[in-house]
C-alpha cells in the first residue's frame, strides 16, 4: 500500500520533473476545475427559482458560452505557461514549498492566501478599468454583459497573465504548505463561478452584505465601473468604488 507521504512525493517529483510535466499538469488541473465548477453551477441552477436570476433571461446564450469557453481555454494555457516559471524557480531553489501537512498552520495559511487573493484581484481589476487596459484588454471580459459560469476565465491573454501572478509573491515570501497553495486556485474559481452565475440568492439583503457578492459582480458587468472587489466588499468601501 502506498502511504499518503509517498503519494505526495510521487506527485511532487512528477510535477517538477521538467517544464513539460509542469505545464501539462497545470493545464489539466485548471481545465478540470473550469469545466467542473461551470458545469456544476449550470446543474444547480436547474433547481433554483427563476426569480433569483438577475438578468431575467430564462437561459444562457449558447453563442456567448462558446465564446467564453474559447477565451477561457486561452487563459488556462497562459496559467499553465506561468507554472513553468514556478517549476524553474523551485528547481533553482528560489522558492520553497512545505510538503508536510500541519492542520494548525494550514488554516491560517489558507486564510492569508484568501485575503491576498482579494487584494490582488482588486488592484488588478482597478488597473484593468483604466484607459488602454480596458479598451484593449479587459473589454473582452465585459462582452459577457450577462455573465455565465463559463465566463470566469474569459479574458484577454494579458489579463489572464496579470491575474495569474497572484501566486508568485506568496511563493517567494514564505514556504506555504502545498495544500494551502492548491487551495488558492480552487477558492478562486469557486468564488469566481458564484460571482458570474447571474443569480442572487439573497435579494432582500443590502448590496453591501457579504452574501451579495454575486449581485455586486453582476452589477459590475452591467454598469462597468465600480464593484471591483472579488468576494469581500471591504476594498470597495475603503476606496469608495462600490455601486448598487
From TrEMBL:
**Gene Ontology cellular component?**
membrane
Keyword check for Transmembrane: yes
Entries under InterPro entries matching the protein: Fatty_acid_hydroxylase, Sterol_Desaturase_Related
Domain of life, per the record?
Bacteria
What is one GO biological process annotated to this record? lipid biosynthetic process
Q: Where in the cell is it found?
A: Membrane
Under the GO molecular function aspect, what terms does this record hold?
iron ion binding; oxidoreductase activity
Which segments constitute the Fatty acid hydroxylase domain? Answer: 111-241
Q: Which Pfam families match?
A: FA_hydroxylase
Q: What are the alphabetically sorted keywords of the record?
A: Membrane, Transmembrane, Transmembrane helix
Listed transmembrane segments: 20-48, 69-91, 97-116, 150-172
**The name this protein goes by in its record:** Sterol desaturase family protein
Amino acid at each position: 500500500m502506498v502511504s499518503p507521504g509517498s503519494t505526495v512525493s510521487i506527485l511532487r517529483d512528477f510535477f517538477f520533473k521538467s517544464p513539460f510535466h509542469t505545464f501539462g499538469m497545470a493545464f489539466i488541473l485548471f481545465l478540470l476545475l473550469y469545466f467542473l465548477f461551470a458545469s456544476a453551477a449550470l446543474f444547480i441552477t436547474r433547481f433554483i427559482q427563476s426569480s433569483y436570476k438577475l438578468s431575467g433571461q430564462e437561459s444562457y446564450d449558447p453563442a456567448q458560452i462558446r465564446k467564453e469557453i474559447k477565451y477561457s481555454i486561452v487563459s488556462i494555457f497562459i496559467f499553465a505557461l506561468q507554472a513553468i516559471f514556478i517549476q524553474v524557480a523551485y528547481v533553482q531553489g528560489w522558492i520553497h514549498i512545505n510538503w508536510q501537512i500541519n492542520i494548525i498552520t494550514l488554516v491560517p495559511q489558507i486564510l492569508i492566501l484568501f485575503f491576498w487573493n482579494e487584494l490582488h484581484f482588486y488592484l488588478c481589476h482597478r488597473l484593468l478599468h483604466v484607459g488602454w487596459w480596458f479598451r484593449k484588454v479587459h473589454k473582452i471580459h465585459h462582452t459577457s454583459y450577462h455573465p455565465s459560469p463559463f465566463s470566469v476565465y474569459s479574458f484577454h491573454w494579458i489579463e489572464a497573465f496579470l491575474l495569474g501572478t497572484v501566486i508568485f509573491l506568496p511563493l517567494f515570501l514564505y514556504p506555504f504548505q502545498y495544500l494551502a497553495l492548491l487551495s488558492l486556485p480552487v477558492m478562486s474559481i469557486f468564488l469566481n463561478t458564484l460571482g458570474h452565475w447571474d443569480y442572487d440568492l439573497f435579494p432582500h439583503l443590502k448590496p453591501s452584505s457579504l452574501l451579495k457578492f454575486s449581485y455586486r459582480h453582476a452589477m459590475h458587468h452591467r454598469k462597468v465601473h465600480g464593484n471591483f472587489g472579488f468576494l469581500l466588499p471591504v476594498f470597495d468601501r475603503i476606496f469608495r468604488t462600490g455601486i448598487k
